[in-house]
């Protein structure tokens, strides 16, 4: 335990109602971390808050889809970032099987859609409208795509339906699937060198915003049922003819057993809520300042006591 | 002295090949070594019957590949024989359980290997103490004993060396020391002195003779060296193609070779050194005058044979005349040698 | 390859081979006819691809089977119990290495103590250079700010490697002792060695819980096969007289094994240990997918946030660790015991151990007083992540680099790779299988041909044919390119001892460098295209080709080259007529390994973006689709095995024909 957390413990002990502390099990609360920085730092922030309350905390690295199965079984205790778009399906599937539950939303929105870095706008000034994007499709052409534009979609298994949207909206684009998030960044990174225009799949909150300022392409606005009912959306005969929701949820999930085993920590978990700027700041500490996640979390906690101390009292 | 049989080997076969048991069962009698080889099998030991009595030193000789090592391995059941029976101290070797076999080897048998068979990761001392360790002897006792035999074979000061760090002769002496360590009753020595220089070899031979005479050990000894064989042997067995051609005392082998092969094999030997007066003593005519010792060889008596004028010279064993030696016959042997 | 084989046919025209190649030509002809029919539109669809309806639901069957074993037979309960034991071990090492709060609550060991001990052990094994390497590796790790994550990795490897050692040793002994076990184990080992690692990962997670336990299990399983092989080999090589000496000393079976066989097989067993260590390190990154913490997880996180410099540094750490452990264990292999003179005092005999303890205790105490001896904090470390980032990005953005890669990308993608892929996909399934069988027949003969037919038939029945073909296409393309580059490189390097050494060293490094790190520069240079995929496989596949070319050429008996010299051959003639033919069997082994490596890497290349089996496999990782995962894995394994069997058969036959040692 480092000096900082010791100090924190002392500080928090003064606030915290002793009854709650006494009830929490001394078994470690297992918090999963994945491979993107905001989630890692946020998990460490929450972990350090729990530690300051006298709980034992442990971190495990897990796959971000498989984690819900682990939460369900109690192998891990909670999940701090449940993205509507990316993990909604896995989360709901696990919810149906039972064993975990919704522990409340963050005060943040998530969005994932076609995205471009700012320099792209120089080559295609009409952006962010999707029609304008389609007009300058040729700008995005590569050797393999002929005169059609190239859109780099997320990995196939993320099921982002880029291909369907291109067809539904009659766009002059060829959809190529990256194999991983890292592959997406590599493409943007390569394009950055000579400011080549690119359009790729991206999401927020995300470290990329801090590294490459950019915008989402504005597609026809999301209407409920756009992915189920062809009639919804501009093209009456096709699914996926709208953009993704611009305000997806960001949830927390908890193992059903957590409430009884660590009532104090559980209570805090339900109160926790981060906003987009707070999440971006956490990511920035790691991605731009190059801090280690634990240090970034400690630093964030130190800088924002007014945000979190309310949750623990 | 009643001769107690220690090892008794009856019609033993050891055949190498794919399914030797089956082959032996279906094999017609009288097949030669080459016939068997033509069928894809090797007769390592071919229908051998031989008895070894307590306190005897039996020397096995024969050309390379004649089956000497194989036969000895059958005696110690390092090889399971394919047919026949071998009994050791009355126990049928092949019917021994594993436990009994281990007991037998731990307490009764010792062996020195042709290419030493030292454990490469153990020091000289640890190698020598190995059989004692396997017996479960305590550390101090086995160390004492090991030091003793290491000294005996002249490796004092090299106790902590590893086999890799020793010369061939030194390694061989470690092998000898290892087999000496447990003082076995029955000793199998497969060319134990082959890598030794003449001086040490002589010393070792003397040591074995001493042990045998003193403790009544039974020794089966393989060698290629006739001088060595004559020095040591009570009986010599001569092998060819897995079979024992003849097994008899040295003078009998020299005087009455059983087969042409044995005759050829022993041709080079100086008979005068081998043949003893006792063998030449005929029962009927005792002769007169001063008797000679039965154990004296013809060569020992050379001067007497040439200078004496008697036709028949009496031969005595333990001061009792057992027969007369025909001087002409003895001279014949002496002359043939020179 | 085609040239070489026809060449060889010419000089070994035994009747058996004649009919072999005749049959192969017949099969080839049928395949061509089928394909032509297809192009002419005359071949019914059901002969082009197996109809969906006829594909047996292997995955579903397997799922039923797995569920039966898992739940009804209670395997899950068993493995979860095992997990607890494993977790206990992992907790101990985790506490010692990086201070996880678990019993025995005494860690973490200060980094200086570890580095100090590494130096002493290194000195003992290989003198000053090895000491420097050992200490240097750990000092680098600490200074660069990766101490904790490196120790997270080490804490798992410290459990996985011994586990793999003991299990491998045990199975090796059984396989040596009982022919039946050996027969049962052999095919399993071949499959295990060709099975994509993703197929190990999912069962590991399901049965052993996500996290270090699953990581340790997957690592262990991956590292076991060579240990088994080396143990069996070593035991078989123990001289019979040594064993007989043991028998005559009255050893029981157990004593014989413990005191005679195992110590005498020391060299082979230690070679096995070396391989276990290397395979464990190879899994460091891959197991990160199933929650193994440490260097691998960090590397993935760094790649996920596009930090090239830091990923590169982690790669260097992994290489350093691998090289250190490799060199030290190899030095241990060749080290023979040396005696101490009589009367050497006790402390002199145990000087190494005493020094280790001394250094260890000294630094542990020193760390109590000097903070940097215990831990190098974030702000003090010397990571150059950002600078390396700039450097790499700057290099990749250079005009000449960009122009070359653009040109390569264009030519390869548009003219070669994509048309080749489309061509392979256009071949009807039966024709494709016939082609492979013809290949196996002409190279390896009847047996490999039968295996090829069965194996590829199964792949066709698996329902993943198109993806399998795409996987194979990436492998073939990459290996062909690797041949074009790697073999000439090897030939050139083999001319001088100095260059051979240098190139071999480069091969070693390229092989231990985590393959994931190649992916990002590949994408930045070639985009998310087939070229990137092929290029990243290429780097990996070239290594064995170059290595075995060098080894093959350098082990050509000197009498033979001298004879050629005396006959007045030019350098080129000597190479073509004498050296290459003699080196060919060895090179074929390298070729085979190149294919195996390519099958390994093609799965990783799924992270660039492919449409092959790797992509589907990667996808199953996130779920619990054990059946599908297994079917996919087996598809890869079957294709790899076909090549393995065929080429190895050819190489052994050829070696025998040339009278070369194995
Ligand atoms: N384990 C075995 N398997 C097959 N054949 C064997 C085996 N051991 C010995 N032989 C064969 O048995 C025959 C006798 O071998 P053996 O070792 O007994 O000869 P030897 O008389 O001791 O020869 P040397 O004087 O060279 O030691 C040889 O032809 C040998 O090839
Ligand atoms: Mg012999």
Features:
heterotrimer; B: 338 residues; alpha/beta; Rossmann fold; CBS-domain; six-stranded mixed beta sheet; four-stranded antiparallel beta sheet; 15 helices; 14 strands; C: 662 residues; mainly alpha; MetI-like fold; 30 helices; globular; disordered N terminus; binds adenosine-5'-triphosphate; binds magnesium ion
Describe the structure.
The complex is a heterotrimer of chains A (313), B (338) and C (662). Chain A has 313 residues and is an alpha/beta fold. Chain A has two domains: 2-109 and 248-312, 3-Layer(aba) Sandwich (D-Maltodextrin-Binding Protein, domain 2); 111-216, Glycine betaine-binding periplasmic protein, domain 2 (D-Maltodextrin-Binding Protein, domain 2, 3-Layer(aba) Sandwich), CATH 3.40.190. Helix content of chain A is 43%, strand content 17%. Chain A has helices at residues 3-15, 18-23, 37-52, 67-73, 84-97, 120-123, 130-135, 162-168, 181-193, 208-211, 258-261, 263-271, 276-287, 293-303, 305-312, and strands spanning 29-33, 57-61, 78-83, 100-105, 111-117, 149-153, 173-177, 199-204, 214-216, 250-255. A five-stranded mixed beta sheet of chain A has the order 7-6-8-5-9, with helices on one face. In chain A, helix 3 links the parallel strand 1 and strand 2. Chain A is globular and about 65 Å long. With 338 residues, chain B is an alpha/beta fold. Chain B contains 15 helices and 14 strands. A six-stranded mixed beta sheet of chain B has the order 6-7-8-3-9-10, with helices on both faces. In chain B, strands 2-1-4-5 form a four-stranded antiparallel beta sheet. A four-stranded mixed beta sheet of chain B has the order 11-14-13-12. In chain B, a hairpin with a 2-residue loop joins strand 13 and strand 14 (320-326). In chain B, helix 5 (124-135) runs parallel beside helix 7 (168-181). By secondary structure, chain C is mainly α. Among the domains of chain C are: 157-337, Orthogonal Bundle (MetI-like fold), CATH 1.10.3720; 393-426 and 465-622, MetI-like (MetI-like fold, Orthogonal Bundle). Helices cover 82% and strands 0% of the residues of chain C. Chain C is globular, with a radius of gyration of 27 Å. Mean pLDDT of chain C is 88; it is low at 1-13. Chains in contact: A-C, B-C. The site of adenosine-5'-triphosphate has 12 residues of chain B, from strand 2 and helix 3.
